[in-house]
Specification:
The protein has helices at about 5-45, 70-85, 95-120, 125-155, 160-170, 170-230. With about 230 residues, it is mostly helical. It starts with 6 loop residues before the first helix and ends with a helix.
Amino acid sequence: MNFSETAIVDGTLCALACCSVLTWSLIVLKAGEILWYRYRNQPLLKNLDAKALLSVNQDDTGLSQDNLTTSVGRLWSVGSTTYQRAVSKPALNLEYTAAWHELIERSLRQQLQKEKARLDTGLGWLASIGTTAPFIGLFGTVWGIMHALKDISAQGNASLEVVAGPIGEALIATAVGLAVAIPAVIAYNFFLRQNRQLLAGLEHFSTDFLRACIESDLSHRALEGHHVHATA
């Protein structure tokens, strides 16, 4: 059997070749993206001072203008903006302050979701290719075997020499499908694990920032209460 004479099998192999090119392109791009995220974010996560995160002046926090374009910088920017809005308002009671803390937490959580969406870009393609490529290859094999059997029937000879060649060629589609799917599945699981580790670091950063906000507000309230008692 000659694949070039069968449009369906040809199309199946072309589709698998495109999936393979897309898979390896995504693997290279995602690997570079993960390395870039780690290179830019890890030093900030290790060196930032939680108490300095509340500073209005970004130079006091250790964040340069270039750092603000990182995941950590974007989280700090969102949280700091919300916190500065909170401290610019007069604190009426504990419930009012707690509401602002909840708003800061929600703002940070929303930004974390955006960062997760950035990291997950392309993983859907890897998952889809890893799931469907074996079935695409199996479809090509079934179609090829069907045509091989028709050719064998037309020849009127079912000897092993006649049957083995065409069916063996038809099985190439299944082998190609597996060769495409296996790297896609491995890469998907690997990048998913890396993304979880990166997001865990960002979540720790968000927790530290929120804790710094709460501690700062409690300290201010304690000072205000001390001044009130001293005046009385």
